[in-house]
Design a protein that fits this description.
CATH topology: Rossmann fold
Strand content: 5-15%
Structural class: alpha/beta
CATH superfamily: NAD(P)-binding Rossmann-like Domain
Largest sheet: 7 strands, parallel
Helix content: 40-55%
Bound molecules: hexanoyl-coenzyme A
CATH architecture: 3-Layer(aba) Sandwich
Length: about 260
């Protein structure tokens, strides 16, 4: 695809990206760095951070990394603090850290349900809350990575559906409460995106072709599709967009095709 955005549209911005080492959010982090942002990435795994940091730096970008579990507010607060100490502030927060596995509701333990809600929903709140004062100073913005699983119902995904419905509520509530500080809060709901950990966990390879035929645009999404949506929402072109969750799924959820 031809380059659609002008160069350096995020020049001078500091982007704090959770789950920024891998997958969809890793792609968003890399795309933001290519657009001129200085990155801070978090992951629970040091090796995920190291790989992204060296990829960004070898491309001429800046990348600060912190091991952090978004479920732990004190850890999140200290990761935000370390980023502010390193760069002097934060302009963009991307909540991408997420957990998932397939499990029938009647076989899922309370702790299994709670673990995913803690990572996705509480983790998103924790990061937004801990970053608030910095975002207020920068009149910054938040981008929450959601899903479309909960728009209808997706078997074996009750935990993630509940968690992402909560994330969407956070997007809407914060957009209303924090708009007065100049903070925009939006989300992206990716559909089936190929070459991601989520798809590996959720979709047996034999079902891929069947599902592809039921996606209106007749193809799986690519990480670059989400990167472009994120660049748009983070850019000045989206200055008046607040409180939306942008669905990027080729029209898939409208057909009600379930991954379960
Ligand atoms: C049933 C499971 C399970 C499984 C874990 N649990 N895996 N239950 N089926 N496959 C249960 C455990 O039994 C335990 O409950 C509880 O969940 C916590 O498990 P832990 O392994 O102790 O948790 P933890 O080490 O914190 O790992 C979190 C995790 C794991 C979510 C379970 O999968 C993870 O770390 N994932 C991160 C990477 C990831 O999932 N990326 C994909 C995101 S994709 P008990 O009761 O036994 O104590 C995504 C896309 C969504 O989010 C949209 C797609 C379209």
């Amino acid at each position: 695809m031809n380059k659609v955005f002008a160069d350096n549209i995020l020049q001078g911005k500091v982007a704090f990206v959770t789950g920024g080492g891998t997958g969809i959010t890793g792609g968003v982090a890399r795309a933001f760095a290519e657009a001129g942002a200085r990155l801070a990435i978090t992951s629970r795994k040091q090796e995920n951070l190291d790989a992204m940091k060296s990829a960004v730096e070898s491309n001429g970008g800046e990348c600060f990394s912190v091991v952090a579990d978004v479920r732990d507010y004190a850890v999140v607060e200290s990761a935000i603090g370390a980023t502010v100490e390193h760069y002097g502030g934060i302009d963009i927060v991307v909540n991408g850290a997420a957990g998932n596995f397939l499990c029938k509701a009647n076989e899922l333990s309370a702790n299994g349900f709670g673990t995913v809600v803690d990572i996705d929903t509480k983790g998103t709140f924790n990061v937004c809350r801990a970053a608030f004062e910095e975002l207020k100073k920068s009149r910054g913005q938040i981008l929450n990575i959601s899903a479309t699983l909960h728009y209808l119902a997706t078997p074996m995904q009750i935990h993630v559906s509940a968690a992402k419905a909560g994330v969407d509520a956070i997007t809407r509530n914060l957009s209303v409460e924090w708009g007065r500080y100049g903070i925009r809060v939006n989300g992206i709901a990716p559909g089936p995106i190929e070459d991601t950990e989520g798809m590996k966990r959720l979709l047996p390879p034999e079902l891929k072709e069947k599902l592809t035929k039921r996606i209106p645009l007749q193809r799986f999404g690519r990480i670059s599709d989400i990167e472009n949506a994120a660049l748009f929402l983070a850019s000045d072109a989206a200055n008046y967009i607040n409180g939306v969750t942008l669905v990027v799924d080729g029209g898939q959820w409208l057909l009600g095709t379930s991954l379960g």
